[in-house]
Automatic annotation (TrEMBL):
Protein name: Cell envelope biogenesis protein LolA
Gene3D superfamilies linked: Lipoprotein localisation LolA/LolB/LppX
Keywords attached to this entry: Signal
InterPro entries per record: LolA/LolB/LppX, OM_lipoprot_carrier_LolA-like
Source taxonomy: Bacteria, Pseudomonadati, Bacteroidota, Flavobacteriia, Flavobacteriales
Origin: domain of life: Bacteria
Annotated signal sequence range: 1-16
Pfam (any one): LolA
Stretches assigned to coiled coil: none
Length: 206
């Protein structure tokens, strides 16, 4: 009984820490995010990506560096546990898997185009403006705001049942969680975020 009471107490604290935003708070947050997205020219950050699977106890942890340049230049560079680079530029997705290179035209596939838009949208914050393809709700947790995003597209929803974007007090994305219908989840945490610092053009060379 003592253990049950303790668990209920902890659960009630967690509920108290999370609150839905009012319509006025949502409008204010969206206005700030729109202004922030319009100011964004470049973004650099380190990231830790943790993949958990419903059927496997162990988690897979990857580390790397992210580079973004407005409007749609994105480099996702994994350095641990192995070298793997994804570059999205001018409608093409370039992949370098430890020297094995490939390229795909995102415009040739509607689904692939939506995935590319989803990836860049989570980085620059413009995903929150895409009411055509996603439903949104917002939660306040301490000083952070979490956007809960549900894809409307059936094929996209089969990949990601829910997307959570966590913003800090400066309205910067510091965590993205991708939840699959299977129960698998990928959590990406950003650190050492650099805003509007010049990025050499060579960084985005495939």
């Amino acid at each position: 009984m003592r253990i049950l009471s303790l668990l209920l107490f902890i659960f009630s604290l967690n509920l108290a820490a999370q609150q839905d935003l009012s319509k006025e708070e949502v409008a204010q947050f969206q206005e700030k995010m729109t202004a922030k997205a319009n100011e964004l020219e470049t973004l650099q950050a380190n990231f830790i990506q943790t993949k958990s699977m419903e059927m496997i106890a162990d988690e897979t942890v990857s580390r790397g560096k992210l580079y973004y340049q407005n409007p749609e230049k994105l480099k996702w560079k994994y350095t641990e546990p192995q070298d793997y680079v994804i570059i999205l530029i001018e409608g093409e997705l370039h992949i370098n898997d430890a020297g094995d290179k490939s390229v795909r035209n995102t415009a040739s596939s509607k689904l692939f185009s939506k995935i590319a838009k989803l990836i860049t949208g989570t980085i620059n914050g413009k995903l929150l403006q895409d009411n055509e393809n996603f439903d949104f709700s917002y939660i306040k947790e301490n000083d952070n705001i979490i956007a809960v995003i549900i894809p409307k597209d059936e094929h996209l929803r089969q990949m990601f049942a829910e997307i959570h974007m966590q913003f800090n007090a400066e309205n910067l994305v510091e965590k993205v969680s991708l939840m699959e219908e299977s129960g698998d989840a990928t959590v990406i945490e950003f650190s050492q975020i650099q805003w509007n610092k010049e990025i050499p053009s060579s960084v985005f060379q495939p």
